[in-house]
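mind reviewing these tokens:
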Amino acid sequence: MRLGYSFVLITLAMIALAMTACDIISSGARTPTATTTAPGQPPIGQPSPGAGQPSPIPGSPAASTPGADAGTTPTKVAFAVVTETPARAAAATASATTAAPRPAAPTGKIAYGISTTPDDDPQFRSIWVANADGANPRTLITYAWSPVFSPDGKQIAYYGKPRSAPEGMYIANADGGNPVLALNDATACCFNWSRDGAWIVYTDSTVKTRPGGPIKIVKMDGLYKTITDLKVTGSNPVFSPDGKQIAFSGGEANTTSLGIMVAPTDGSGAARVLTRDNGGNPHWSPDGRHIV
């Protein structure tokens, strides 16, 4: 690449020297002769103006400068050399590259609750499911609310109050079939699965319209008998990605301060205050480094 640049520079220098020499020769002093010519006639050896020569173009130097000697006007030549550089090549490649394709449409299912009345009458509450893009919405379970899919998408936990069965937390297949009462607890609320699907964290909320209370976890082993009281109080608890902690909305004892708190899942009750800004509904980032 350097040899190519050197060759171009040398060639340009030689052209410039040659043009300079032509300018010097063409603009040099002429030796006057003693030949006498008639008035108004050109010197001997020179053609008459316009004889055998094209007419000057209006606006050109020859037309705008009457009497100028065309033979003594220096010739000027301009060169423009464009060299390829890595930056310019990259810019050209970038401009030629087409825009990145849009992300693919989301897949899977979304479960959500619908209530057609402002009160807690279960006959007007139901769980619906739709495609991840919102298409094909349909009723999944009636007399139920607060659904959440298991991490593998094969099961769904929800609060149910069937007509002829106890109310509490139910576990059913993802299509709503084979419902099983996992917690015969009318105060259970706000369910969240651990990432491995082995546990569900929830709160015992004595006031339905104000979810919050003691936070507990129950083991998803089909028996649902292993329950651990985490010895903290709050609402909307969620597992950390590694399952070792929960984040929840709560308040410090003997204060009116509310915010986001974190506690271990070993039941020690050693809660830590993260914020005091009345924040709620926390969620962990996938890597467990942030809480939103």
Summary: Helices lie at 2-26, 61-64, 86-96. The first helix runs from residue 2 to 26.
